[in-house]
Amino acid sequence: MRLFVTGGSGWIGSAVVPELLDAGHSVLALARSEAAAAKVAGLGAEVLRGDVQDLDVLRSGAERTDGVVHLAFRHDLAFAGDFDTAVRTDRAVIDAIGTQLAGTDRPFAVSSGLAAVHPGGLATESDRPEPFPGAGGRFANERAALALADRGVRAMCVRFAPTVHGAGDGGFVARLVEAARAHGVSAYPGEGAARWPAVHVGDAARAVRLAVEHAPAGSVLHAAAEEGVRVRALAEAIAGRLGVEARSLDTAEAEARFGVLGTFLGLDSPASSAVTRELLGWEPSGPTLLQDVEAGAYTD
Q: 61 near 4, Cβ under 8 Å?
């Protein structure tokens, strides 16, 4: 297939593009800057200049290809606390591409997240959480994407673990490492009992490729190799690597130190990927999150 990928120069996208190419597909990748264009071209993709706010460009990319993998998200706004704007942009992208693909039966893989899908319980692919303000707005976008199955689109949602890890990851774990270096303490909220699902970036990319190739319309898929890594264990692994103390913070202290990330750190969000593994024949083979941290993926 010839596939249109948004977010192809990003952390997950830069693994997905070569995964698709290696499997014999061709890729048209959205690039919002010269640097992004150079990166995706270097991976072997054809470049389409524009960003996620250029809806006409997005429609053009969808029209010119056999399917779409939508990975882009305005993480700059989300990390700054403006999740609502980031979510609205994402919804506009889903609506524009979905309308373009209506009646074609082409695959449309939309990315989402596993945090807060089933807080305190084990999230499964059958969960359909109610949207809530901020980051929870992505659940409304999930529903909009899955509803495209009724309009003749092979639409699916890939929920990624909060930590898609590996050397080069600049997400949550990298921010925890930065904070530990800055303060001389690797901190965690409360008892650190909250659990985060995790997946190596290579395994995540393979899940996306298998989804586009095989998942039926309306599928919800979980890119999570580990059901839940304890936040305290993660903090202790970071502390061991940096040679600093691991220490608990109360909720107010955690929010002051980590900002938006502090809220996520306190969420207990384990997640199963049993249905995804059976449906796609997906078997994660990469290192675990703690193995990556201990090997220096975030510190060397």
A: yes
Q: Counting beta carbons within 10 angstroms of the beta carbon of residue 167, is it exposed (0 to 12), middle (13 to 18) or buried (19 or more)?
A: exposed
| Separation CA 176–CA 170 (nearest Å) | 10
pLDDT in tens, 11-25: 999 999 999 999 999
* pTM summary value: 0.93
Q: Which residues lie across from 206 on neighbouring strands? A: none
Give the pLDDT confidence of 27-85 residue by residue, as tens digits.
Answer: 999 999 999 999 999 999 999 999 999 999 999 999 999 999 999 998 787 777 788 88
Of the candidates 234, 224, 226, which has an alpha carbon nearest to the alpha carbon of residue 294? 234
Token match 């593009």: residue?
Answer: 17
Domain with CATH 3.40.50.720 in the chain: 2-163+199-225
CATH architecture of 2-163+199-225: 3-Layer(aba) Sandwich (3.40)
Cα radius of gyration (the chain): 19
* Pairing status of strand 163-165 against strand 46-49: unpaired
